[in-house]
């Protein structure tokens, strides 16, 4: 049985979103598409940190791109507000701060390995 090449997604020029407004950023960073074939834009480390920082202003936050693809991230969040909480409770607080960016196939953030800690 002959093997088939994966389909190639071709977007008409008119369907592209406007370029990102921040200087020094690439115009477009596309990640895998969802099941409808609609491409998703990857998030950048600063975008992830900004969302977390809005909920945890005093936290020490470290964001790492695990695969170098802007699609698989690790975050370490150290904050006093986690004291007395179990790991699941603390991680739920951080995931809630991402405001739906990880929601299903339409989320901008594909994967986030999360570590939460209290300060020493």
UniProtKB/TrEMBL annotation:
SUPFAM superfamilies: BolA-like (SSF82657). Residues 1-14 have a biased composition (Low complexity). Residues 1-39 are annotated as: Disordered. It comes from the Bacteria. InterPro entries: BolA, BolA-like_sf, BolA/IbaG_stress_morph_reg. It holds the Pfam family BolA. Belongs to the BolA/IbaG family. This is Stress-induced morphogen. It comes from Cereibacter johrii.
């Amino acid at each position: 049985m002959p093997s088939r090449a994966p389909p190639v997604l071709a977007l008409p020029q008119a369907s592209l979103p406007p370029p990102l407004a921040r200087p020094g950023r690439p115009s477009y960073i596309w990640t895998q598409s969802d099941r409808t074939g609609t491409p998703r834009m990857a998030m950048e480390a600063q975008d992830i940190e900004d969302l977390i920082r809005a909920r945890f202003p005093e936290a020490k936050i470290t964001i790492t791109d695990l695969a170098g693809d802007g699609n698989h991230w690790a975050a370490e969040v150290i904050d006093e507000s986690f004291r007395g909480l179990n790991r699941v409770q603390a991680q739920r607080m951080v995931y809630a701060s991402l405001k739906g960016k990880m929601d299903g196939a339409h989320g901008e953030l594909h994967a986030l390995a999360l570590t939460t800690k209290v300060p020493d």
